[in-house]
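Sample intake sheet
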Amino acid sequence: MLKSRFIGAIAALSFTALPAFAGTVSLIDDFSTSQAPISTDQSTYPTGVSSTASGAGILGGTRELTVISKQSGGGFSTSAAVSGSMSVFSNSPIGYGEVNLGYGTVSPLAGFDLTAGGANGFVVDVLSSDLGVDFTILATDSNANTSVISSTIGGGIYGQKLKFKYNGFAGTADLTDIDSLVFRFVNANGNSDFVLGNMATANVPLPAGGLLLLSGLGALGLRRARRRT
């Protein structure tokens, strides 16, 4: 079940949200459109339980929320909801829990260009990750080709914007012609709470070291050109 005290504590963070990442290009979801809580246990595994919500602040206009659980029942469950501009995932202490946020899974995005505006990655605003989750982004193009980014969002993270660059994709999807995106959050061992503030595509800059490297290479090239003259 959703832990009300935990949600109440995190709600305070939503009113002091971090400023938008400077490279943000296209909003995927700001979670301003609410979605009623879903709670399930092993009785619905492996398909889980899904619902949809349509409204502002959602890529393609419709969000599909799916909850899958191996919790043992008897009060142990996996839950998710969207409320107060937050997406909340809560997993009871016994067993596997999974939440999927789907965009274009109900009505295709009709060729959304992930690279539009110079975007080269995703930014995920993590308000809270107490014990950590496994994280996957699945992109499917109009020809049903797929690409996947797999990562881990660690525990003890509060109020951080995490970047996932497109060069982490494995697969053959055409990123300029995307029909659907699925963001999957998995807690395999139970007893985890996870809260998102928003998700977007972004122009993720090189780290400072990379910029210094490019500057050094540029200076070296200029020096060589001068020697030739």
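Comment: The chain has a mean pLDDT of 85. The radius of gyration is 20 Å.
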